[in-house]
Structures are given as C-alpha cells and as structure tokens.
Amino acid sequence: MLKTAGIHHITAMVNDAQRTIDFYASVLGLRLVKKTINFDRPEVYHLYFGDEAGNPGTVITFFPWEKQLKGRIGMGQVGVISFSIPKSSFPYWKNRLETFDIPYEIKNRFGESYMQFIDPDGLVLELVDRDTNGDHAIQGFAGTTLISAQPNKTADVLEKMLGFQMVGEEEGYLRFKSSASIGNIVDIKLLPSVRGLMGAGTVHHIAWRASDESELSEWKMLLERNGYHPTEIKDRNYFKAIYFHEGGGILFEIATDPPGFTVDEPIEHLGESLQLPSWLEEKRKKLEEMLPSVQVRTLKGEE
Question: Which domains does the chain have, with CATH numbers?
C-alpha cells in the first residue's frame, strides 16, 4: 500500500504580504525560502517559509492579496496548524509571544500541551514541544487539526488512501500518525462546527508528501480507482502536484519531495529575489511593478 510520509506543506490565504513576512520570519523565526507568484494568479505573491532549506514537512506558504474578503474557519478546512519546537522551550516562546504582545492559551490533547495563538489574519497556530534537536527554533510542522464536514469520510481517506494509522481518540478528536519525524500527526475534530468560508485567515489546502513523480502518478491512479477526481499532474517548479477534495470537503494536495527550492537560486540566497517560472519571465518587469515591495526585517523588540 502507498503511504505518505506526512505533511509536505500547508498553504493559507492572507491580506498583507509584508505583515505576513514580519510575523512568520521575524516573530516566529522561519526562513523566507521562496518569493514567487501564484502560478494561477500571477498578480499575487506566493510566499514560502520553512527551515533553512525549505525541507518537506517544514513549509508554510501564503497567497497574500489585499482585496480578498475575510474568511471563516470551519467545516471543510484545516482548522489548526501545529508547529514542533524542542523540548523545554515553552518558557522561551511564552516570553517571545509576550514580547510581541501576542496573546496565547495553553490547550491539551492526547497528553500534550499546546501553546495556541492567532496570526495577524486569524489563522490558528500552535506550538508543541517534541523530542527534536535545537535550542528554541521551530523545527517544522508537528501536525494539524482538520475540521471535516464528514469526519468518518476524512478518516477513511487518511487511513485507506494516504496510509496514516489511527492511534487514538479522546474528547472529540481522532488522532492519526504517519512515519515521518515531522508533520506526522493529524487530528480530526469530531464535534460539529460552522461551515468554513474561504478567504483571508483560512487555509487554502494541505499537501501530503510523495517521494517522487513516479509515486505521484501511482497516487493519481489510486485516487481515480477509488472514485476521487484528482487533477492532472501540475508543475509547481519546486514540486509536482495533484489536487482533490476529500469527502469532508477539505482540499488535499499530494506533492513530490523533489526537486526543492534550490532549482532557481542557491541555498544561501533562498528567498532574496523574485523567482518566476520560465513562461512568465517575459512579464517580469510588469509583475515587479504590480507586486508590493517586501523585505525580511528586524522588528522592534526582537532579540
């Protein structure tokens, strides 16, 4: 049976590009690993943040567009994005969030404590300490919480299509686990919620890992045989991908680990300049004039 290693990336919708860079790079300490455009709407940035190399399981991406309406987190969406931090680094992160006047709550699920807070657009984020290396830095995704319109159908997809193993149920949540060391935990919320509305402050899709393009083709055939309707394989420059809606209404993507973010700029300069796919290079000047000027900068209060 095909089994995904876990989360490849998560993509969300926000309003302001610079504000998003300030929060995810300067406050949370993620690296801006790619500054490109939404291939389907090139007038909108596509910003990628992750670890130093943008490894699968560490990358959160954004479509920042000022004109989009505010969304509402609910059924048919990713509800919570959880990041993994090293053991014993809760005090550091409490202090850091307080330094930037970011309120937080401590939540508990499956015997773990989660520090939950909200990003500037309303996305729900969590930090959870896991057995990972490093001092305090975010190591990648710990996992995610899905808010499904039909939790049993979403559970079926995770187990029977993607190869996750169900490892627990408690207080309105099902928990699933994959084989990876990061991005390996998925919780499904069982309690009813409001209907999700797409817009700023919501997750557009969650992507799962495929080892290469050959495996991606196998996923496509598997989904088709089981009555899903995946898209054709799309070239996203840094990975190949297919997309489909699972039975609970959430948009799933399956994306290849290679080739990664060094295909168009060296690792030491990731995210420094606007990268365009070859078919849009002739429109570079126009796009650069249209897109807002952004930069990674040090914020007041940053250590």
Answer: 7-290 (3.10.180.10)
